[in-house]
Backbone:
């Protein structure tokens, strides 16, 4: 029934909302337990039909709290999951803003030594998603997107390939 599906979505949303609330405390966000949630959250995001801003917030809080968080996000395919979903986010929404911040953080942490064919593919997804948003947005987020595109195109790994 329709109510069963709606309740199911609420039950799936609740743990992420609670985890995101806890992660507002940097000591909790940087804990090994929270970092270990990143691959599962990304897997859920890659299979989910509904996009929840709380998932982005959780990933952002954990990845900014510690180096292990951002590396877990990169190594678990964060670029590959987040970039394609940007086209489904409402233009100019808070979720879009957080997604852009996550992508900026991930791109800033990539090194030329970590670049391989998979990373280049992930960056192409980022460029495509951000370029689309850059074309349609007419607010302050446009400058964040320009900064992100600039970071990709002016990076050492972009210039060396």
Residues:
């Amino acid at each position: 029934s329709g109510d069963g599906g709606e309740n199911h979505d609420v039950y799936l949303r609740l743990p992420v909302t609670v985890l995101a609330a806890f992660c507002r405390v940097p000591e909790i966000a940087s804990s090994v337990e929270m970092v270990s949630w990143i691959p599962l959250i990304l897997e859920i995001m890659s299979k989910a039909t509904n996009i929840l801003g709380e998932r982005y917030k959780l990933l952002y809080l954990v990845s900014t709290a510690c180096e292990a968080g951002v590396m877990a996000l990169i190594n678990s395919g964060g670029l590959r999951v987040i970039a394609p979903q940007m086209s489904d986010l409402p233009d100019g929404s808070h979720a879009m803003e957080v997604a852009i911040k996550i992508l900026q953080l991930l791109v800033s942490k990539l090194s030329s030594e970590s670049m391989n064919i998979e990373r280049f593919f992930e960056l192409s997804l980022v460029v495509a998603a951000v370029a689309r948003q850059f074309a349609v947005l007419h607010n302050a987020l446009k400058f964040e997107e320009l900064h992100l595109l600039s970071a990709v195109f002016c990076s050492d790994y972009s210039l060396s390939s």
In short: The mean pLDDT is 83. The two ends are 53 Å apart (CA to CA).
